């Protein structure tokens, strides 16, 4: 009987640890999703894409012909 009681306590402890890990992982997923949503709403990703592109949208027309012929 003692052995059975000890196994039950060990299983209860394991389920508590599993619950804590899953809850922490779920919280991280929710927080990261909220942060990504906020950045997408502010247009930060589009802003970074435009600034890191080799040719900006506004200045693409004058250099297009030179790029085509010099390529």
Structure description:
With 71 residues, the chain is mainly alpha-helical. The chain has one domain. The chain has 3 helices and no strands. The chain is rod-shaped and about 85 Å long. The N and C termini lie far apart (83 Å).
Features:
rod-shaped; 3 helices; 71 residues; mainly alpha
Write the layout of secondary structure elements.
Layout: H1 2-42, H2 44-52, H3 60-70
Outline of the structure:
This protein is mainly alpha-helical. 86% of the residues lie in helices and 0% in strands. The chain crosses the membrane at residues 20-37.
Query: What is the terminal-to-terminal distance?
Result: 83 Å
Instruction: Compute the CA-based radius of gyration.
Output: 27 Å
Q: What is the overall shape?
A: rod-shaped
Percent strand = under 5%
SSE run: HHH
Structural class designation: mainly alpha
By DSSP (H or I, 4+ residues per run), the number of helices equals: 3
Mean pLDDT across residues: 78
Total domain count = 1
State the helicity in percent bands.
over 70%
Write down how many β-strands occur, each being a DSSP E stretch of 2 or more residues. Answer: 0
Keywords: Membrane, Transmembrane, Transmembrane helix
Transmembrane segments: 20-37
């Amino acid at each position: 009987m003692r052995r059975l009681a000890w196994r039950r306590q060990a299983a209860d402890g394991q389920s508590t640890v599993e619950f804590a890990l899953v809850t922490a992982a779920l919280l991280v997923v929710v927080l990261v999703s909220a942060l990504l949503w906020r950045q997408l709403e502010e247009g930060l990703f589009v802003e970074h894409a435009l600034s890191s592109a080799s040719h900006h949208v506004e200045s693409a027309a004058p250099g297009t012909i030179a790029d085509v012929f010099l390529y």
